[in-house]
């Protein structure tokens, strides 16, 4: 653990782009920068949320039925990206490498768990013996 | 190697050294700062990183592990979404207008949470508290709407023990609701701490962590309203 009891450059009022930054945090910027980010994040999120509810309502069947789940998932991933960038301030800058790598590992585990479970359980379901055949199966 | 080769190579390698020095990961997305080493930046030669960075990064790791836990509940739900055991289907229990209201409340609370941190950075006590309170009220509205939904379902005899799908549904949505409730308790604690202790360093570190937590909850909710509710509503 760090024994630095101060936050270097925090109150100095000088922008140092080489310093590491925690997610949700950024080098000193004016409050207007944060408000702008929040406004942009809210704007994009509202658009994507409304689009998702519209796609699910299947108004006038504008979207081909089987494609609706795909559209919903694409919109959800887009909105998660908007939240990461505008609310959590995760960027691709050199000061953010650690945060992005940790995030990438988290996303990898999430996909392994979810897709692996669906895949394996779907496979078992497909190979399951019909209920009636259970009694006839050899011991 | 002839002298003329060296004369050609030297400027190029000097240029490469300069690039690596100024932009070690060659991402080039941010303006370069000073080329020298910065104290407290965690670059090894200049000592450990500042507490602000360590606290935020550590909490980020915790949040990612929390999201991995949610992914297990998502996987359980995805596997069991058709295991209704003769009970109600997902389509029969989803109330889209209520989900739209819940989504709006949580999204707006995420927004006001971001605004409160903007006010914190400007060291403005009043607006920090105002936006934290608005965040808490919106979170409370979300939790109450969800509690009302669960109560209504229970009154119709739709409880977790009815089917595998309902167990996974109540587990996943309930876990998120529990997170929001506990986040609300944390938020109330932060309001009190900011009021009593002011913008001390460790208080600001806690506000950073709270912001991360609240935004992460909204990210999880995006997954829930998409995969559970909207996908469920189309059958």
Lay out the secondary structure.
The complex is a heterodimer of chains A (139) and B (235).
Chain A: H1 31-57, H2 68-87, H3 97-127
Chain B: H1 3-22, H2 51-80, H3 90-93, H4 96-121, H5 125-155, H6 164-197, H7 201-233
Straight-line distance between termini of chain A: 61 Å
Estimated share of beta-strand residues of chain B: under 5%
Spatial shape of chain A: flat
Largest sheet of chain A: none
Low-pLDDT runs of 5+ residues of chain A are: 1-6, 8-18
Let me know the largest β-sheet of chain B.
none
Backbone shape of chain B: elongated
**Percent of residues of chain A in helical segments?**
55-70%
CATH homologous superfamily (4th level) name of chain B:
Cytochrome c oxidase, subunit III, four-helix bundle
Instruction: Please count the beta strands of chain A (DSSP E, at least 2 residues each).
Output: 0
Count of spatially separate domains of chain B: 1
Report how far apart the termini of chain B are.
72 Å
Can you describe this structure in just a few lines?
The complex is a heterodimer of chains A (139) and B (235). By secondary structure, chain A is mainly alpha-helical. Chain A is built from 3 helices and no strands.
What does this structure look like?
The complex is a heterodimer of chains A (139) and B (235). Helices cover 56% and strands 0% of the residues of chain A. Chain A has 139 residues and is mostly helical. Chain A has a domain at 26-93. Chain A is flat and about 75 Å long. The termini of chain A are far apart. Chain B has 235 residues and is mostly helical. Chain B has one domain: Cytochrome c oxidase, subunit III, four-helix bundle (Four Helix Bundle (Hemerythrin (Met), subunit A), Up-down Bundle), CATH 1.20.120.80. The termini of chain B are far apart. The model of chain B is unreliable at 1-12 and 28-34 (pLDDT under 50). Chains A and B meet through helix 1, helix 2 and helix 3 of A and helix 2, helix 4 and helix 7 of B.
